[in-house]
Amino acid sequence: MASGNQKGNPLLRVVGGSQTSRHADSTSAKRDVEWSIFMARAQAGDGEAYRRLLTEITPYLRLLVGRHHRSPQDVEDTIQDILLTIHSVRQIYDPTRPFTPWLVAISRRRIIDRLRQQGRSARRETPLNEDHETIADAETNLETRADGRSVREAVEKLPPGQREAVTLLKLQEMSLKEAADQSGMSIAALKVATHRALKSLRAILGKGDIT
């Protein structure tokens, strides 16, 4: 009888919903604190904390990016862009501030970048994007004064084709057409090389080489 009253009582349903919401908020807050701690340790050179942070935020990013992209390839490419941006600007993160809003702000910029690229491609009725594939915000450029050395060292470890592609497109911020003209590579080859380079950089930078 009590069970039936509880199911039919809208007040009890609201109370139960509030309890669920509070539990979710508590879980999110706990997760945010943990990620802030991992980032602070990463800033101090703790490679293991950095690897754990990247591992934990990737599923979260996949859900976030998946709301805006249907293609699994676009989702993964956007995640790679986000992770590389996080690495390049991690030293400017303030550990006293919540981590998740900082992460979401970076993610939204990269999501918007790729959506804009897709929009330009659609208007040109071509599967290739010949416009700039760069990080527009100055504070989120691949190369920052905080850790430009580590990024350059990581880039130097790439195979020649990948190194040239990521240098022209990400570091020098050329358009695909400009990079193709300078390198002699086709636009399609540049896109493939850049995608592979970003995955390789994530692996290199996630091994603790974050000095």
TrEMBL record:
Please give the residue ranges the record annotates as the region Disordered.
1-27
Which Gene Ontology BP annotations are present? DNA-templated transcription initiation
- Gene Ontology MF annotations: DNA binding; sigma factor activity
Q: Which InterPro entries match?
A: RNA_pol_sigma-70-like, RNA_pol_sigma-70_dom, RNA_pol_sigma70_r2, RNA_pol_sigma70_r4_t2, RNA_pol_sigma_r2, RNA_pol_sigma_r3/r4-like, WH-like_DNA-bd_sf
Classify the source by domain of life: Bacteria
Q: Which Pfam families match?
A: Sigma70_r2, Sigma70_r4_2
Keyword terms of this UniProt record: DNA-binding, Sigma factor, Transcription, Transcription regulation
Domain named RNA polymerase sigma-70 region is located at 60-120
Gene3D superfamilies to which the protein is assigned, alphabetical:
1.10.1740.10, Winged helix-like DNA-binding domain superfamily/Winged helix DNA-binding domain
What CDD domains does the record point to?
Sigma70_r4
Q: Could you tell me which residue ranges the RNA polymerase sigma factor 70 region 4 type domain spans?
A: 150-201
Keyword check for Nucleotide-binding = no
Entry's family note: Belongs to the sigma-70 factor family. ECF subfamily.
Q: Which NCBIfam families match?
A: sigma70-ECF (TIGR02937)
Q: Which PANTHER family match?
A: ECF RNA POLYMERASE SIGMA FACTOR SIGD, RNA POLYMERASE ECF-TYPE SIGMA FACTO
Name listed for the protein in its UniProt record: RNA polymerase sigma factor sigM
Naturally occurring in which organism (per UniProt): Afipia felis
Gene name of this polypeptide: sigM
